[in-house]
Amino acid sequence: MRPSTDEYFMEIARVVAHRSTCLRNKVGAVIVRDKHILSTGYNGAPHNMEHCLDIGCMRDQQNIASGTRHEVCRAVHAEQNAIIQSALHGISIKDATIYCTHQPCILCAKMLINAHIKRVVFEESYPDREAINFFNMAAVEVVQLESKIEEK
């Protein structure tokens, strides 16, 4: 059966997530406008820095719960990396849709709002409901797709 447009781009976000170097959540993001991919991103350490895969997770080491204290993390989030990649390559993402394997956190929500992303599509929930409130206040459409992750 042919996937819908949302399912198609979400599948690509899942593939992008395979590049993640995070030990907790492998997250992928794809920014799309007019059915064309503008940028992708996955969560991992900043350029030229060691990855959590290699040196461990500071959040695990400090017992920090998921969805809290976002500033204590080595990784740049997938959504942030997708925004950064578009900026580095001079690609406007205004009025685009972002497909994320996981719901954006509040920090990413604020960046996506200011980048004029008009639609956010995600699969996995994240324990940060304030991000959804921000999207609603900013009139950003939010869609949660049913997870299609296959169990092994």
Automatic annotation (TrEMBL):
The cofactor named in the record is: Zn(2+)
Give a Pfam family name.
Answer: dCMP_cyt_deam_1
User: Gene3D superfamilies, per this entry?
Assistant: Cytidine Deaminase, domain 2
Q: What is its EC number?
A: 3.5.4.33
UniProt keyword annotations, A-Z: Hydrolase, Metal-binding, Zinc
One GO term of the cellular component aspect?
cytoplasm
SUPFAM superfamilies under this entry? Answer: Cytidine deaminase-like
Q: Which GO terms describe its biological process?
A: pyrimidine nucleotide metabolic process
Q: Which InterPro entries did the record assign?
A: APOBEC/CMP_deaminase_Zn-bd, CMP_dCMP_dom, Cytidine_deaminase-like, dCMP_deaminase, dCMP_deaminase-rel, Deoxycytidylate_deaminase_dom
Q: Name one GO molecular function term.
A: tRNA-specific adenosine-34 deaminase activity
Of which family is this protein a member?
Belongs to the cytidine and deoxycytidylate deaminase family.
Q: Where is the CMP/dCMP-type deaminase domain?
A: 4-135
Name assigned to this protein? tRNA-specific adenosine deaminase
**What gene is this protein a product of?**
tadA
